[in-house]
What does this fold into?
Amino acid sequence: MRLSTLFFAAVALVPAAFAQINYKDYDNDFLDPAYVLGKDFNSSTAAAQQTIVQWADFLAAQGPWAVTNKTVTAPTGNLQDYLSWAPYYWPNCTGVGNTTELTPPQIWAQCTYYDRDGMFNPDRLLVNNTGDFQAMSDAVFYNTLAWVLTGHSNYSANAAHYIDTWFLNPTTGQTPNLQYSQMHRGPTGQIGDHTGLLQMPKLTSAVLVLRQAKSPDWTDALDAQMVNWTSTYLEWMTTSPIAKGEWESPNNHGTYFYGQMAALQILVGNTTAATATLKQYFSKQYMAQIESTGEQPFEAARTHPYHYRCYNLAAMIVNAKLAKYLGMDYWNATTTQGATIQTALNFAAGVTLNSTDGDGPIWELYPSMVAVGANYGDPSGKYASFLAQADNQYPAEPYFFFNQNFSDSGLVAASAPVTSKQGPTSGAMAGADARQIGGFMAGTMTIALICGAFIV
It folds into this structure.
């Protein structure tokens, strides 16, 4: 059974109710706009569509976000310069003075900082450009999808407003570089690190949908400004020593760098460059990232190996999705040891998570498992069976909507609502039907944020 577009009633929730939204911040994703705008969705995705709308509402209640929303500035003193602090670095004030006698700014400037891999310095959250960017990116992504699914223009207006506020507004817009991302503090620091480059494929997906659907909120002027901002940022990515370090990184940093660059090249319309970027990744870093067993050696060496396997796997999958969008097939590309992305997924699925040391969360693997099953097939049903046992609500997750066709393991009720194929109009579901779809109750679990997007 196919479902073209499922229409939802507007969900009017007070802020306290949002505390029960099962919102998760997925590591990374890219969605082909042709799939979204084709509106030929499997009926089994009805609950996932409802979740997308709920997440859009949940995030919209918090926005907008701006890079200027911080009390500490980069060394330039410019609030519009993106700033984040290396999360695993801690101060050693030996020879400087007792830390109880130094002010925080004195500690940041005078004490030498050293790396404690996997151990977060809690004061990193005093500057939250990283968290704000991720929330903004997700808000743009889900509000754009909610606009297509419901036809309600408030969602497309939200998406356009968030992009304008973060990137383009003369007062709040980010300077188009990450010169002070993951900055190392102390007397020898005060400059960014190559580990801080942002993820952009979600944003690119949203812009492509808004652009191709000719949203009245995504004007030609906004599109031109975003292309101009992105072009300047791409110039920084290809010339900055900081960015070069990420470009050359053999592990997840390199994987994310190539995905971000290709996505942004697609956004500005340079598909030739995006094609070359992805070809370079799959012929360079990718070749050494997966062993014959499926182990990812660079990620396994980290303090939280389960998380890092999942984190890099998500980035490899996005790179394969970007390549598919450009007409290339890298799902079956093999590494030097003959492994594929599927091999890496299979290995990660067999690893026992040591949750006592803060690794995980275990569900970080689930979006990648559905993506692998959708692209390689799941003839034996092993992936669907795994997920049905691990989380019998998985058909209500947005990643289930992103990766079709994948089995719902029979968990979705056969009476899922169906509508005729049409463009965005009114005709919303109402009452209990808008909240309960195919046996899945939306909004019954607490918020779960994945720290993976912020770990380097």
The longest helix spans residues 129-150. The longest strand covers residues 89-92.
